[in-house]
Amino acid sequence: MRPRVYLTRRLPQAAVDIVTAACETTFWDDEALPVPRETLLRAVAEVDGILTLLTDRVDVELLDAAPRLKVVANMAVGYDNVDLPALTARGVLLTNTPDVLTETTADLVWALILAASRRVVEGHRLIAAGGWSTWSPMFMVGQDVHGATLGIVGAGRIGAAVARRAVGFGMPILYHNRHPSPALEAQIRATPGAAIRYVPNLDDLLTESDVVVVMVPLTPETRGMFGAREFALMKPTSVFVNASRGPVIREAELIDALQRGRPWAAGLDVFEREPIGADHPLLTLPNVVLTPHIGSATVATRTRMAVVAATNLVAALTGQPVPNPVNDGGRLRVERRAPPV
């Protein structure tokens, strides 16, 4: 008898084909909106596996509704939407999609750095509103990116990819991590003139950096790690970028800090509560660039993520080696937790 699975969203056909070839498959037939909670709880009653998105909460309630469940294949690097200890306690495997979205997300980080530093969105709005009347020496001046000091908080896969791109801008790189990364340092220093330094004290990184990029996973330790105190340490000309998870930032304190001019500007792809609406206070600030959690959003990368998640799901249910387990055989493993996207 073929295993039964549920897909919580309409996926690219390449991923659907992998699942349907091996499993009896049902799914929520909507690409845009998450499956309603009540529908999800009913749908998983007799399934062996679920392919989930970061919008799907996988917790004790869902596990109780799915007594046959063997695997949850999360279509993301991060899994803060999943109660991992609860899954592990019940012997349910969790998988994720690391590596696939690294370069694409790093590109988006750089889009935010450049747009916030050079006031790209603000300039577009000015023109659209008919506010461009002439050229003048200090009109719409921004901050230089080339030669500026880049501070990366969380130099995992994506943080390292952000650092590699900074070499082309001639930026000295500082990074703060739980541990130094000799491999990253060697990679950066292979380019003549490139400079990188591990900074064990976060405060030092904040005071020295012109651009601060946050790429940490959301954990109990990182939740709310950036607030009024941290923003006050930053330069009045600094640019702050977060493309990890919104709750890493105390959002109200960031808004207050931006109004006070420290940091000078911000680029955000993630928020404390998502989605945000048109009435969100961040949208009242001219020195902020916002994107709707699209770090991995290219056709190629989202398709590849879906294919990897589908491959993980099928492998787990058909006795094949699972490419990307997060927990192993019902036991928590020591894992390299990359920033979620």
Quick synopsis:
With 341 residues, the chain is of the alpha/beta class.
CATH topology of the largest domain: Rossmann fold
State the secondary-structure class.
alpha/beta
- Which percent band covers the strand fraction? 5-15%
The CATH homologous superfamily of the largest domain is called: NAD(P)-binding Rossmann-like Domain
Number of domains: 2
Q: Tell me roughly what share of residues is in helical segments.
A: 25-40%
What shape does the CA trace take? globular
Number of strands: 14
Largest β sheet strand count, sense and barrel closure: 7 strands, parallel
Elements, N to C (H/E): EHEHEHEHEHHEHEHEHEHEHEEHEE
So what's the CATH class of the largest domain? Alpha Beta
Low-confidence stretches: 331-341
Mean pLDDT rating? 95
Contiguous helical run count:
12
Q: Give the strand order, joined by hyphens, for the main sheet.
A: 8-7-6-9-10-11-12
What is the radius of gyration?
A: 22 Å
Summarize the SSE layout with pairings.
Blueprint: E1 4-7, H1 13-22, E2 24-27, H2 37-43, E3 49-52, H3 60-65, E4 71-74, H4 84-89, E5 93-95, H5 102-117, H6 120-128, E6 150-153, H7 157-167, E7 173-176, H8 182-189, E8 196-198, H9 202-208, E9 211-214, H10 228-233, E10 239-242, H11 251-260, E11 265-268, E12 288-290, H12 299-317, E13 327-328, E14 331-332
Parallel strand pairs: 1-2, 1-3, 3-4, 4-5, 6-7, 6-9, 7-8, 9-10, 10-11, 11-12
Antiparallel strand pairs: 13-14
